[in-house]
């Protein structure tokens, strides 16, 4: 049964209610509210989910309850906000227990020892009966929003203004690098119809003396969400692994250091077809764009800008995510394209595991990545290793290949949580050109076998900031790095 407000201009809620026909009992409720219900102007969205579980084949009783609120700045469309989330799980029901009258006279509440509670032999999971009834796990915020949009037939659900300033990241407003000099920019966000977004960003590079523009259009969420992007002189960075957060790269370049970029520029358009949740599910991207090399506009003492294969590129790219054993998560991506007169193809796989000890004494993250491409792959699509984020203790992106693999392992032990922790890490990888060549100005080569790095350092402030000392073990050197958790890179 679906519930909808009587009139959209009045406060109301919208969602789904699942009932047990025989018992007329509520099995699940998942719902949100219309924007007129929101009082706080910072509130974007609310999700409420109530799940019941069947006990003794008769009683539908609370099993899991979730509430999620998403808040953003009402004046600015920026990839940052806050989420307030609460989750309750209820279980261990016991029925028809004979209670002594003395139970209600006492003043204390006792529980079985922790070891006994954790070792209790449950014969069935609490969620098993929901699966028997054909119900999937609690839907995500995006799924609830897509469902509610369909029920409301296109009515807006966000409580935020449809007209806002827009920044894809902080570096879209201000950055500094050797290919652009100082860049300043901004953008606007317009929602001409409910949940459809138009975003226009632009800026000017003072050192390069050229402007750049980016336009993006997204339809309301559904099973397939098309996203159209058009761009003029959009700056790109080669390589699979960003060297550092863009803000830190700008600060380093401003004081005469490395900007951790291998930039080039693109003009054209791409169409991406994805599901309602960008981080999961399959994705298909069609590209038609022109690539052009960048030039160094800062002092000649800086690292040279690597040239790229120029011309018109047309490509098809596919990506999907997969669940891996041990609570791991993997991504498999493939592409086929043509640049100029050359056809090329590539395949890339990445896997990640995050583990935490029961007492939270250690947090461990492991990552494995491997890829291969054909002989005619353009240099800007080759795989780059060396330096921060890949193999610290070696010159930045000094190893290049059309085949590569990289394994990284890091562990963190909190000293004074959440402020300070100890980090240890190791990396092992290789890159092989396998008959391919790079432009002479690149000054890069294959790794000539395995390369390894080890190091240790400190994690600061909820493990967001990192100060590390690393050593490249084979013809490497000592290196001190200051970095930010890679999960924050997209909005920096």
Characterise the protein shown here.
- The chain is mostly beta strands and 492 residues long.
- It folds into two domains: 2-151, no CATH class; 163-491, Porin, CATH 2.40.160.50.
- The protein is 6% helix and 49% strand.
- The protein has four helices and 26 strands.
- It has helices at residues 114-118, 128-132, 141-151, 246-254, and strands at 2-3, 13-20, 25-33, 43-55, 59-71, 76-78, 82-89, 163-167, 174-177, 181-193, 196-205, 210-218, 225-237, 263-274, 283-293, 311-324, 328-339, 342-356, 363-373, 383-385, 399-401, 403-416, 420-432, 451-460, 465-472, 478-484.
- The strands form three sheets. The protein has an 18-stranded mixed beta sheet that branches. Strands 1-2-3-4-5-7 form a six-stranded antiparallel beta sheet.
- The protein is globular.
- The two termini are 43 Å apart.
What kind of sheet is the major sheet?
Answer: 18 strands, mixed
**How helical, in percent, are the residues?**
under 10%
- Indicate the proportion of strand residues: over 45%
- Global geometry: globular
Q: What is the class of the largest domain in the CATH system?
A: Mainly Beta
Overall number of strands = 26
Overall number of structural domains: 2
Short description:
With 492 residues, the protein is mainly β. It is 6% helix and 49% strand.
Please give a handful of descriptors for the protein shown.
single chain; 492 residues; mainly beta; Porin; 2 domains; 18-stranded mixed β-sheet; 6-stranded antiparallel β-sheet; 4 helices; 6% helix; disordered N terminus
């Amino acid at each position: 049964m679906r519930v909808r407000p009587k009139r959209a201009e009045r406060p109301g809620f919208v969602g789904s209610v699942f009932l047990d026909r025989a018992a007329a009992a509520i099995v699940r409720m998942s719902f949100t509210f219309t924007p007129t219900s929101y009082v706080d102007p910072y509130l974007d969205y609310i999700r409420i989910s109530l799940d019941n579980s069947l006990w003794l084949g008769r009683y539908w009783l609370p099993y899991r309850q979730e509430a999620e609120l998403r808040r953003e700045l009402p004046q600015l469309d920026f990839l940052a906000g806050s989420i307030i989330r609460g989750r309750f799980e209820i279980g261990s029901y016991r029925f028809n227990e004979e209670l002594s009258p003395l139970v209600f006279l006492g003043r204390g509440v006792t529980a079985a020892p922790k070891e006994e509670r954790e070792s209790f032999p449950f014969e069935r999971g609490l969620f098993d009966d929901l699966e028997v009834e054909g119900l999937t796990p609690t839907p995500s915020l995006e799924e609830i929003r897509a469902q509610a949009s369909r029920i409301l037939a296109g009515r807006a659900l966000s409580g935020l203004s449809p007209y806002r300033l827009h920044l894809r990241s902080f570096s879209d407003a201000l950055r500094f690098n050797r290919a652009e000099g100082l860049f300043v920019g901004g953008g606007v966000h317009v929602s001409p119809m409910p949940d459809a977004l138009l975003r226009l960003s632009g800026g000017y590079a003072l050192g390069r003396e050229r402007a750049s523009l980016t336009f993006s259009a997204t339809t309301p969420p559904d099973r397939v969400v098309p996203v159209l992007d058009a761009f003029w002189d959009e700056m790109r960075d080669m390589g699979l692994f960003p060297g550092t957060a863009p803000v830190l790269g700008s600060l380093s370049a401003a004081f005469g250091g490395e900007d951790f970029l291998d930039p080039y520029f693109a003009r054209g358009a791409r169409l991406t077809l994805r599901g309602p949740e960008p981080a999961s599910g399959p994705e298909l991207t069609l590209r038609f764009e022109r690539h052009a090399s960048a030039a160094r506009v800062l002092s000649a003492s800086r690292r040279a800008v690597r040239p790229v294969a120029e011309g018109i590129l047309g490509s098809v790219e596919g990506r999907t995510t997969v669940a891996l054993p041990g609570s791991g998560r993997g991504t498999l991506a493939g592409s086929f394209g043509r640049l100029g007169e050359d056809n090329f193809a590539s395949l890339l796989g990445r896997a990640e595991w995050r583990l935490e000890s029961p007492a939270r004494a250690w947090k461990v993250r492991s990552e494995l990545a491997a890829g291969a491409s054909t002989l005619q792959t353009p240099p800007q699509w080759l795989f780059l290793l060396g330096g921060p984020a890949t193999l610290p203790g070696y010159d930045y992106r000094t190893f290049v290949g059309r085949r590569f693999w990289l394994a990284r392992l890091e562990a963190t032990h909190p000293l004074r949580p959440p402020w300070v922790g100890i980090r240890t890490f190791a990396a092992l990888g290789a890159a092989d050109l396998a008959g391919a060549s790079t432009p002479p100005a690149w000054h890069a080569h294959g790794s000539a076998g395995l390369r390894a790095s080890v190091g240790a350092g400190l994690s600061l402030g909820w493990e967001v900031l990192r100060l590390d000392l690393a050593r490249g073990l084979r013809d490497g050197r000592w290196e001190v790095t200051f970095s930010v958790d890679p999960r924050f890179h997209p909005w920096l």
